Amino acid sequence: MSLLQKTVDSIGDLNQNALEEAQKRLDFLLKPQGSLGKLEDIAKKLAGISGNVFNNVDKKAIIIMCGDNGVYDEKVASFPKDVSMLVAETMLSGICGVAVLAKNVNAKLRVVDLGLEKDVKIPGIVNRKIRRGTSNFAKGAAMSREEAIKAIEIGIEETNKLIDEGYNLIGTGEVGIGNTTTSSAILYAFTKENLDLIVGRGAGLSDEGLTLKKQVIKKGVELNNPDPNDPIDVLAKVGGFDLAGLTGCYLGAAARRVPIVIDGFISGVAAICAAKINPKVKNFMITSHGSAEPGSKKIAEVLGMEPMLFMNMRLGEGTGCALAFHIIDTATKMMKEMGTFADIGLA
Questions:
Q1: What is the pLDDT of residue 314?
Q2: Do the Cβ atoms of 272 and 291 come closer than 8 Å?
Q3: Residue 81's pLDDT band (cuts 50, 70, 90)
Q4: Which overall architecture, per CATH, does domain 3-55+333-344 show?
Q5: What is the rounded distance in angstroms from the CA atom of residue 301 to the CA atom of residue 34?
Q6: Cα distance between the two ends of the chain
Q7: 37, 56, 57, 155: which has the highest count of C-beta atoms within 10 A?
Q8: CATH for 60-329, among 1.10.10.10, 1.10.246.10, 3.30.499.10, 3.40.50.10210?
């Protein structure tokens, strides 16, 4: 049995007894029932994942999948290709957005190269390069089915390594020029939503560039005709190595019953891919923020999961996960440290 199939088959349900016990605890805390809103939802979900009412998320990591995209050749991005490699290097040197935010919540970054065109020169990159960038999906499939499965399985493997090292809360991030184009193409392949509602400017496209981006996505999906009932086919034909890798991260965490946080637009599309492979994976996902990218609303609709934050952010990288980590940690403290009505003689 392949690693992918074994992982998919291992994904289970939330622990119903723990959910019930967590709800009893929440209702007995010193507050009106439900008054802490999403904090209560998070605490309850953590209980369902672990089987325990009280939980720790004291060892946090963000796994960042990196890969360049051949569709860049269609002029759908406003930055040169070298930027992907440079961003990965700034992550390792600790000076980019996600590095600073992750440090603030004591979270480790694991940066994985699945398909950057140029090699990262700073030590610390996890080299799992499949090849140097995907193919241009405006002219044919972005990758083979075998490459897509390999990227998914690398995501599973790297997530398993983090869990084996004791990490109990995982976030998702990505690096790759052109990956809002691949993400939008996947979302379009699954939903056939009006492109005006799901395609954004990415890293800053002009009006002309945005129009071209939509045309390229429509052309690529029509040319490759991905099967919306086969998420691996969709990933292979119009996706990217980063998206396939993140899909594996979600599946891997779910199989090991470890909570995993969705970042923004790109990570959200990968979450949809994982949920299309096995819907139970959503039991183990926690949202972070609603991206400023227009397609984020469609992602929330498809997943049936509302973001916890709306910050007008669109950087990606895993930055939203770092913010969510603090909130999730707060939810565990609420569950353990708040008093109950019994403590003040009102039981």
A1: 92
A2: no
A3: confident
A4: Orthogonal Bundle (1.10)
A5: 23
A6: 53
A7: 155
A8: 3.40.50.10210
Cα–Cα distance between 225 and 243 in angstroms, integer? 19
pLDDT tens for residues 303-325? 999 999 999 999 999 999 999 99
Q: Are 275 and 287 in contact (CB under 8 A)?
A: no
- The amino acid at 257: R
The distance from CA 291 to its chain's CA centroid, rounded to whole angstroms, is 12
What is the sign, positive or negative, of the torsion defined by CA atoms of 176, 177, 183, 189?
negative
Is residue 347 scored above 80 in pLDDT?
no
| Gap between the Cα atoms of 173 and 167, Å rounded | 16
Render pLDDT for 40-68 as a digit per residue (tens, 0 to 9).
999 999 999 999 999 999 999 999 999 99
For the annotated catalytic residues, the residue numbers are 317
Q: Per-domain residue ranges for the chain?
A: 3-55+333-344, 60-329
Q: Which amino acid is at 37?
A: G
Q: Which of 112, 105, 101 is nearest to 67 (CA)?
A: 112
Looking at residue 297, what is its pLDDT? 96
